[in-house]
Amino acid sequence: MLGMSLAEGSDGQSGTSTTLKDWKEKEGCPGSSLLKDLIPLGTEESAMEVVLKKIRELSDLDHRDPFMVADLGVLASHHQAFCQALPRVSPFYAVKCNSSPWVLRVLAALGTGFDCASQVELEQVLSLGVAPSRIIYAHPCKPISHLQYAARHGVQLLTFDSEEELTKVAQHHPGARLVLRLWTEDSKSLIRMSTKFGASLELCGHLLKSARDLGLPVVGASFHVGSGCQDPHSFTQAIADCRRVFEMGRGVGHDMSLLDIGGGFPGVEGSEPEFEEMARVINAALAQDFPEGAGIEVIAEPGRFYAASVCVAAVNIIAKKAVLQPGGHRKLLYYLNDGHYGTFRVFFRDRFPRMPIVVKEFCSKPPLFPCTLYGPTCDAFDRLFNEEVQLPELDVGDWLIFPSMGAYSSVMSSTFNGFLPASICYIVGPELRSLLQTMP
C-alpha cells in the first residue's frame, strides 16, 4: 500500500458528472476515433501522474466519477517484449480481453493479428482495414449467421472441436481453412478453458477424417492452457500433443502447417510464473516438436499480456460504515462508486485480492483495519473481493487507485442499477502518435 499526497484541486470542469445521454453520445460519436481525442504524454510524464492530475482536478468537485487512464504506449512495449521473447510466434491479439477501438487501432498499426470470437469482433477488426488473413475466428462453437458473415468477408481461418461444427462449416463456409482445437490439461490454471472447449486426442483422428470426407481442409491444430496459467509446462505437453495431431492429419491427407498455442500469458509484473520463464519453456517445446525449417507457422492468442497493464483505475469512496466486532475490534465498510458490475467484475476470478494504492497523505504510518470494499449498487453481491483487505481508516471522498486494470474490465462493465461504466481517457507518447497518423 502506498500513500500519495495531492496538490490543491483545480477548478476545471472535467469532473462534471456523466449522464446516460452523455455516455451514449460519446460511445457512438464518430469523432471519438480522431487523434485529437488522445491526450499527449510528455517525455518524462507517466500514466500515474496523469491519474493524479485528474484526481486533483476532481478533488474539490461534488461529482467524483470513477475513471481509467489508458496508456497506449504500453501496447507497443509489450508487443516488442512478446516478439523478442517468442521470435517464432506471431501474436494474434484476443479481442475479448479489451476491445477498445484505440487498443485495436494501435495493435493493428503494430502489425499484430487478431483472435475474434463473434461477428461484432470481426466487424471491429475489419473496419480498421486489417486483412482477413490476419484474423483467426477462434471460437469453436459459432452461430450460423456469424459463420456466414466470416465467409462473406474472406475470414477463412476457423477453429473447431466437434463433428457438429464441421457440418455447419461445410454448409455455410465451405472455403474455410480449419484448425482443430485440442483438449488440454489445464487444471493448474486460474480459469480452465478445457472444461468447455477442445477435442480429446482420441477423438482427433475421427474428426480429421470427417473433415476430409466433407471436403474441408484442416491446416493445423490449436489449444489453450487456460487463463492465468500457473504451470508453464502445460505448454510442453500441449505442443507435443499437437505434433501427434499433425501426424494424424497428414496421414489422412491434410496439409498441416499452422500451430496455434493459444493464450494464458501473464499480464502483470510479478506474476508467477513470469512471462520470460513461460517463453523459455515454449521455445524449448517448439524446438523439440516443431523445429525451425519444418515450414510450420506458429501463432498465439495473447490478451492479458498486452492489455492488463494498459489501464489504471481510480475510484472514490462514496460512503462508509464502521462495525464493532467481538472483542471491540473495528471493521470498516467502504462503498465505492465502481464495483462488481462495472470495472471490477474480473476480480472474482483472481486468486488473491489486489491491494489498491491509497491516495492520501498521513502524518505517520496509520493503523490498518479489516475492510470490505463494496460497489455502488443495491446488490449485496456487489463487492470487489470475497476476502477482507487491510487498509487504513479513510473518509468519504478519498480515492483509491488500482493499477493493471486493462484486461476484462471495461468489456465486462454494465449499467446495472443506473451506474455507468468508468470513463476512459487515452494517453499516447509522440512516437506512437506518429505511427497512428500513418493509418488511414
From TrEMBL:
<feature type="compositionally biased region" description="Polar residues">
    <location>
        <begin position="11"/>
        <end position="20"/>
    </location>
</feature>
<dbReference type="Pfam" id="PF02784">
    <property type="entry name" value="Orn_Arg_deC_N"/>
</dbReference>
<dbReference type="InterPro" id="IPR002433">
    <property type="entry name" value="Orn_de-COase"/>
</dbReference>
<keyword id="KW-0663">Pyridoxal phosphate</keyword>
<dbReference type="InterPro" id="IPR000183">
    <property type="entry name" value="Orn/DAP/Arg_de-COase"/>
</dbReference>
<dbReference type="InterPro" id="IPR009006">
    <property type="entry name" value="Ala_racemase/Decarboxylase_C"/>
</dbReference>
<dbReference type="InterPro" id="IPR022653">
    <property type="entry name" value="De-COase2_pyr-phos_BS"/>
</dbReference>
<dbReference type="InterPro" id="IPR022657">
    <property type="entry name" value="De-COase2_CS"/>
</dbReference>
<dbReference type="InterPro" id="IPR022644">
    <property type="entry name" value="De-COase2_N"/>
</dbReference>
<keyword id="KW-0620">Polyamine biosynthesis</keyword>
<protein>
    <recommendedName>
        <fullName>Orn/DAP/Arg decarboxylase 2 N-terminal domain-containing protein</fullName>
    </recommendedName>
</protein>
<dbReference type="InterPro" id="IPR029066">
    <property type="entry name" value="PLP-binding_barrel"/>
</dbReference>
<feature type="region of interest" description="Disordered">
    <location>
        <begin position="1"/>
        <end position="25"/>
    </location>
</feature>
<feature type="domain" description="Orn/DAP/Arg decarboxylase 2 N-terminal">
    <location>
        <begin position="75"/>
        <end position="308"/>
    </location>
</feature>
